[in-house]
Amino acid sequence: MAAKLVGRILDREFPDPPIPLVHRDPFTFLVAVVLSAQCTDERVNGITPVLFDTLGQSPGDLAGVEVEAIREIIKPCGLSPAKSKAISGLSRILVESHDGQVPASFEDLEALPGVGHKTASVIMSQCFGVPAMPVDTHIHRCARRWGLSDGSSVERTERDLKELFPKTRWNLLHLQIIHFARKFCPARGHHVDSCPICAGLALKGLPLHD
Ligand code: SF4
């Protein structure tokens, strides 16, 4: 019941949510997603054009430059030692093992440095249209507040959302929740009375967040 209502409100508020990270192809998207760990999308979107215009935008280009050159440019995104190593390493693997292409496989993606299950899920859903449910901090928070999951772990949230919503809905839902969370449901500060989702849940007498 809560899931259906949440889905209806998200469809009304965000019928066609854009992918927040600017990219040109699966590789530039993968690099952007790696850079977005603990960094805002706005900052990543400011850095990726500089990175690709300066060093090149293919796996071959970035595999052929010093890690330090990548690190210098991506410093504003934070965690630059680890992220630059990951970008360099994954670029090399794509060239050596995947013909310079981003593989459309969870297993191959998760074998790349800097790519965990969440990042692989983002790539599979947004680049290849494979149903996935990447759970970031926004989705984890909202699912708990809406009573769709208990918030005990991101694995649990992923499992619960996948059970509550049909597969055909997962990729859209992921983007809708991110946009909703940014607009209405930040970690701190929100207005239960005016928020379309919790107001709707309250009207139906459904349980609300703490
Ligand atoms: S009332 Fe608050 S917690 Fe509930 S969905 Fe709205 S913003 Fe999020």
In short:
With 210 residues, this protein is mainly alpha-helical. The chain has helices at residues 2-13, 26-35, 41-55, 59-63, 67-74, 80-97, 106-110, 117-128, 137-145, 154-164, 167-183, 196-203.
What's the topology here?
Blueprint: H1 2-13, H2 26-35, H3 41-55, H4 59-63, H5 67-74, H6 80-97, H7 106-110, H8 117-128, H9 137-145, H10 154-164, H11 167-183, H12 196-203
Bound molecules: iron/sulfur cluster.
Iron/sulfur cluster binds next to helix 12.
Characterization of this structure:
This protein is mainly alpha-helical. It has helices at residues 2-13, 26-35, 41-55, 59-63, 67-74, 80-97, 106-110, 117-128, 137-145, 154-164, 167-183, 196-203. It is elongated. 34% of the residues are buried. The mean pLDDT is 93. The structure holds iron/sulfur cluster (SF4).
What is the β-strand count? 0
Q: Give the termini distance in whole angstroms.
A: 19 Å
Query: Helices and strands: which structural class?
Result: mainly alpha
The tally of helices reads 12
Q: What kind of sheet is the major sheet?
A: none
Mean pLDDT comes to: 93
Question: What is the radius of gyration?
Answer: 18 Å
Give the SSE order as H and E letters. HHHHHHHHHHHH
Large-scale geometry:
elongated
User: How much strand content do the residues show?
Assistant: under 5%
Small molecules bound in the structure, each named once: iron/sulfur cluster
Uncertain segments of ≥5 residues (pLDDT<50)?
A: none
